[in-house]
Amino acid sequence: MTHPIFTQLHKGLIVSCQALEEEPLHGAEMMVKMAKAAEAAGAVGIRANGASDVRMIREQSPLPVIGLIKRNYADSPVYITATQQEVDDLISANASMIALDGTRRSRPGGTNLEELIAYIHARGLPVMADISTLEEAQYAEQVGADCVSTTLSGYTPYSLQQEAPDLALVQQAAQALSIPVIAEGRIWQPEQAVEALKAGAYAVVVGSAITRPQLIAERYVQAIRKFG
Questions:
Q1: Separation of alpha carbons 213 and 28, rounded Å
Q2: CA gap 111, 20 in Å, rounded
Q3: 27: pLDDT confidence band, cut at 50, 70 and 90?
Q4: Are 139 and 101 in contact (CB under 8 A)?
Q5: Closest by Cα among 205, 173, 176 to 66
Q6: Which top-rank group of organisms is this from (predicted)?
Q7: DSSP letters along 156-169, please?
Q8: In angstroms, what CA-CA distances link 179 with 75, 167, 193?
Q9: Handedness of CA 201, 44, 121, 105 (dihedral sign)
Q10: pTM strictly above 0.85
Q11: Is the pLDDT of residue 157 over 80?
Q12: How far is the C-alpha of 86 from the C-alpha of 100, rounded, in Å?
């Protein structure tokens, strides 16, 4: 049975409210403000990084929060909700859904993806698997993910490298899978979000183009410098 959260997310905008430690807007209080602004604009969900951010956004916004924790490990390239510890932290923070790396890459300490998904399900939460290829999307569905997101396309060395969103992957996955396919990654224009939905996306996640002002400003600066 499809989790009730998907009814709310269908054909809507999920805003990724994240700021890295070295970025000006880093901190839960700032991300709450970003989430409230997204809510006011009509977003249907929030994607947030870190237990403190997830907890505070959940306390102050009625929108579902897709939680993840980015953490680097020496023994694995996987950094998005890589182990049970991150899962436990997100559950404690009252995340509505947990996003994790859904690739076949080795996980820290030999963590098993299928077991991790089962662990999350046993605690009543759905799972969003971040993938970079069609094969990974099919694998994630096979091991129990409730939906997949194209988040990692272009961020694994073997996936398509391009500046535009990977709409081909969205379309291929939407045709091949029976679970929702969420479009995410390098969506900078509203028209691209619409194209993702036309390609079969169940919903669209947009982050940098909305919530990372230093990157937004940088695009303008680069364009002006090229003109000059």
A1: 16
A2: 25
A3: very high
A4: no
A5: 205
A6: Bacteria
A7: STTS---SS--HHH
A8: 31, 17, 19
A9: positive
A10: yes
A11: yes
A12: 10
Q: What is the mean pLDDT of the chain?
A: 96
User: Which residue, 55, 53, 60, 57, is CA-closest to 27?
Assistant: 53
What is the pLDDT confidence band of residue 109, given thresholds at 50, 70 and 90?
confident
Note the CATH number of domain 4-227. Answer: 3.20.20.70
Residues 51-75 pLDDT 10s: 999 999 999 999 999 999 999 999 9
Helix residue ranges per DSSP H, the chain? 5-9, 28-41, 51-60, 84-92, 113-122, 134-142, 167-176, 190-198, 208-211, 213-227
Identity at 15, one-letter amino acid code: V
What phi and psi values does residue 70 have, to the nearest 5 degrees?
-95, 125
Cα distance between residue 180 and residue 110, in whole Å: 28
Give the separation between CA 89 and CA 120, rounded to whole angstroms.
12
Structure tokens at 109: 């300490």
Q: Which long-range contacts (CB under 8 A, 24 or more apart) does 135-141 make?
A: 136/102, 136/103, 136/104, 137/102, 137/169, 137/173, 137/176, 137/177, 137/181, 138/176, 138/177, 139/102, 139/104, 140/102, 140/113, 141/177, 141/178, 141/179
pLDDT, one tens digit per residue, over 5-23 is: 999 999 999 999 999 889 9
Q: What confidence tier does 117 reach under pLDDT thresholds 50, 70, 90?
A: very high
What is the rounded average pLDDT of the residues 82-96? 98
